[in-house]
Structure formats: C-alpha cells, structure tokens
C-alpha cells in the first residue's frame, strides 16, 4: 500500500533531470518519506488529495526528531515539489522560517577540525589501502584532495584530471555544485603529492576514465561507501572529524596565508566572498 502512494508522488514530480544525480536521489528519498508519512498517519490513498494539515503534521514530526536545519530544509524542498506537482503549491509556505526552520544559525558556523582524530582515520585508511582494500584506496586518495585543496566530498571522488598552462599545473575540479568545473593551481609539495597519489590510485583501481571510483561501483555507491566508512572509522560532526571539517581547515589555513577572502572563496568554488564566513571567524 505504501509503495502505491510513493509511486504516485514520484510519478507526479517527474524525473528532475536538471538536478545532479546525488541531489536527485536525496530529493526522491525525501519524497518517499513524506508519502509514507501521509499514508501511515492519515491513510492517504491519493497524493492529489494532500491537505495543509498533513504538511504541518509532517513538519512537526521532523522537529520532534531533532533534525538539523539543513536536513529539514531538504525535506521541505521535497514537500514543495510534491505540492507543486499536484497543483497545490500554496499549501506549503515559501519561507522555511514559517515552520521554524532556518539555516542561518548553522550556515555561518566555522568549525575547528579535530586534527588528532583525522590523523587516526588517515592512518587506518592507509593500512587498509596498503592491504589492497579498494574502497580504502579510493578514500585515501580522495582524502588527500580534500586535505590539500579543500574539496567537497563529492568533488574529491570525481576529480583527477590536471592540465598544464603557462608553465603551471592546474587541478580540474569536477562534481561541483552547479556542475561547472573550476581550476586550482597545484602550488605546494603536498598538493603535488596528492595529485600523484590520485593518478596512481586511479591506475591501480583500473578506472578507464582515470577517476578514483573503482569501476565496479556507481557514483552513489562510492559516495555512500566513503560516507559510511568514514563514519565507521570515527569521523563525525560531533567530534570535529567529519569530511567537511577538512574543507574548513583548508579555508582557515589559506586565509591565514593569503589574507584574501575572495581568493579563498574562489578556490572553494563559491561565487560570493561573504560565504567564507561559513568557514572562517571574523
């Protein structure tokens, strides 16, 4: 029965081809969750009979679960997609703050990376990689890119290509939000070592596209394996050793080197200098 309402919701919103594969998967997962809630709580059988009080009740349940504002924002986006698809966009407020959800407090919250825990995780990954574990091989190289270039988790899996120009080498960052690649100059010894590790790992894993993802894994499978393994090794947001903390550490170090927020923002793949407030105090 639950699958029937889920199927109705998914069919109504369509394929959302404009979104990246991981964003689309998250959206569809949230749509399924909302449909299951409406059916189990209210016995809803037709998604086009969705009512405002069902939306309110669902949001109340999210608050009760203590979800982070960013997670709740994603789930609200899915609810809006469903409401819009059934011709009832007006039953969901446009502003998340109407439901007591705001990302402002967590968006600009620079984090201090737990260097000791990160080093422990890297040591474990190195041991596993040297033992031939293919996921660990992928993750070790991806971690080097995050540490040395401040890449996002997805970017670190998809980035491997370098180009030469005017006597300099640039890393071509792929998988960015918006889909547009950016180029980062390979400046330091650490960055050069990371680029070599990526090239060697891609060759060892046998990826025909010279990427870090083992050919037997799809992108989502690789992304999930990286996230779950990192968490299993003790890398969490609570202890400051999650993967995104490496991006914060990079931004803080680079701002200390350059004193230039615009440069840091551009290297991180942000168009607005003000976004550096998410990574750096002051």
TrEMBL record:
InterPro entries: CB, DNA_brk_join_enz, Integrase-like_cat_sf, Integrase_catalytic_putative, Integrase_recombinase_N, Integrase_SAM-like_N. Gene3D superfamilies: 1.10.150.130, Intergrase catalytic core. It comes from the Bacteria. The keyword DNA-binding applies. GO terms for biological process: DNA integration; DNA recombination. Residues 8-87 form the Core-binding (CB) domain. Transmembrane segments: none annotated. The keyword Protein biosynthesis does not apply. Keywords: DNA integration, DNA recombination, DNA-binding. GO terms for molecular function: DNA binding. This is Core-binding (CB) domain-containing protein.
């Amino acid at each position: 029965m639950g699958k029937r309402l889920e199927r109705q919701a998914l069919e109504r919103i369509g394929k959302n081809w404009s979104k990246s594969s991981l964003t689309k998967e998250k959206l569809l997962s949230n749509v399924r969750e909302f449909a299951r809630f409406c059916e189990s709580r209210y016995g809803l059988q037709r998604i086009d009979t969705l009512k405002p009080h069902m939306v309110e009740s669902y949001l109340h349940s999210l608050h009760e679960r203590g979800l982070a504002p960013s997670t709740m924002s994603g789930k609200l986006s899915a609810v809006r997609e469903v409401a819009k698809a059934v011709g009832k966009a007006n039953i969901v407020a446009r502003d998340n703050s109407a439901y007591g959800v705001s990302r402002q407090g967590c968006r600009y919250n620079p984090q201090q990376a737990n260097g000791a825990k990160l080093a422990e995780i890297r040591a474990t990954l190195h041991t596993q990689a040297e033992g031939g574990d293919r996921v660990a091989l992928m993750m070790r190289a991806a971690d080097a890119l995050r540490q040395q270039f401040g890449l996002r988790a997805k970017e670190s899996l998809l980035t491997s290509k370098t180009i030469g120009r005017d006597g300099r080498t640039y890393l071509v960052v792929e998988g960015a939000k918006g889909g547009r690649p950016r180029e980062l100059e390979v400046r330091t010894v650490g960055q050069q070592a990371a680029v070599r590790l990526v090239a060697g790992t891609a060759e060892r894993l046998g990826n025909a596209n010279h990427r870090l993802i083992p050919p037997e894994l799809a992108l989502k499978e690789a992304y999930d394996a990286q996230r779950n393994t990192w968490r299993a090794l003790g890398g969490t947001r609570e202890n400051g050793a999650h993967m995104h903390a490496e991006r914060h550490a990079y931004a803080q170090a680079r701002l200390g080197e350059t004193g230039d927020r615009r440069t840091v923002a551009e290297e991180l793949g942000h168009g607005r200098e003000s976004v550096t407030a998410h990574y750096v105090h002051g």
